[in-house]
Amino acid sequence: MEIDFDIPVQREGSHSVKFDGRQQYFGTSDVTPMWVADMDFAVPPCVTRALLARAAHPVFGYTLYPESVYQSLIGWFQRRHHWHIERDWIVMAPGVVPSLHACCLAFAEAGEGVIVQPPVYFPFFSAVTNTQRQLILNPLRCIDGRYEINFAELEAQAKHAKLLMLCTPHNPVGRVWSKAELLGVLRIAKEHNLIILSDDIHADLVYPGATHTMIGTLEAEFGEFIRTNVITAVAPSKTFNIPGLGLSSLIVPNPEHRKALHKVFDLLHVSNNNPFSIAAFEAAYNEGDQWLDSLMIYLEQNKTMARDFIAEHVPQIRCADIEGTYLLWLDCSALQLSDSALRDFFIRECKVGMNPGVVFGQEGRGFMRMNIGTTRARLQAALQSIERAVAAMVS
Prior knowledge:
- The chain has 395 residues and is of the alpha/beta class.
- Helices cover 44% and strands 14% of the residues.
- The protein has helices at 17-20, 22-26, 45-55, 67-81, 96-107, 123-129, 151-158, 179-192, 219-222, 224-229, 237-240, 255-268, 275-287, 289-313, 339-350, 376-394, and strands spanning 32-33, 90-93, 113-116, 134-137, 141-143, 146-148, 161-167, 195-199, 230-234, 248-251, 318-319, 327-331, 352-353, 355-356, 367-371.
- β7 (161-167), α8 (179-192) and β8 (195-199) form a beta-alpha-beta unit.
- α5 (96-107) packs parallel to α6 (123-129).
- The radius of gyration is 21 Å and the shape is globular.
């Protein structure tokens, strides 16, 4: 399959949050948008074909989940992750963020503890606080630019919690937790009877040199605990650039947990989905392999170019070598700017719109998150703009 990811797609005027939302978010449209975590690439042709085929039918009524959509997910995770998922384990969901909220409601009572590991995708925090659960922070440790789980602190905190929300691959720091690290998390969870919600939405976006382990595949080491206490959130949305279609799945081996989640989703009346989401979901998982393989080659080249450019031309910014996702985590602390001043500097001087690290928790102070899921030309131009602005500031 020949896919040219260098071909620019005109996204302005498509009601894109990332492009058409610049004025509202940054106060100006005159920034290169490298913030919201979607990519600037056309979706796989198989997805477009499926959507056009469904659009050819003139009725868009209430839609069931066909058996084929479940089988597409089962086939994908068997092929790509060597994980056998049983049909009954699958709970369809309206997105991963709603799933975070649903799990807080289903598995912890008001006031009970939920552990999250900042700096982390900010809905992890709001899912806990919006549902009146107790937020327990288990900050990651940054050692020479590489993030690690603080297991000693996690062990002390686990006795006060009901639920641990894990992010793997981790957004925004780009770590892909190793099998050994996941086994360490499982050991603590089993000792304290914690339920684990593992957000694996970036599971397919992993670079050579790292191996993503679906926590559900570790039954040989942790046996029945995996089936009773582990829930995994997955979706084709990040992998195939279809987050706007809003369909994900929870893999829930425990039937009591499935019942609890269905109760929450039914209460909120978010159990139905639209026919286009279903068509795209199924097509992507059935036919998207070659497109993804090509994408990962392109993203790895983007990652390497950005990392090398920053190291050579903008040494005031440190860029760790991410293991997964298309999100760079930039340490800008050497610029010695407050978080608000740092945000303004990138908007006004660099003319690049990124996510301030502080929105991912206090541990993100002095950082910025850059989305490299774009054409190489746009990435190169943004990097050069940052280089010029930083050079002018420090001169």
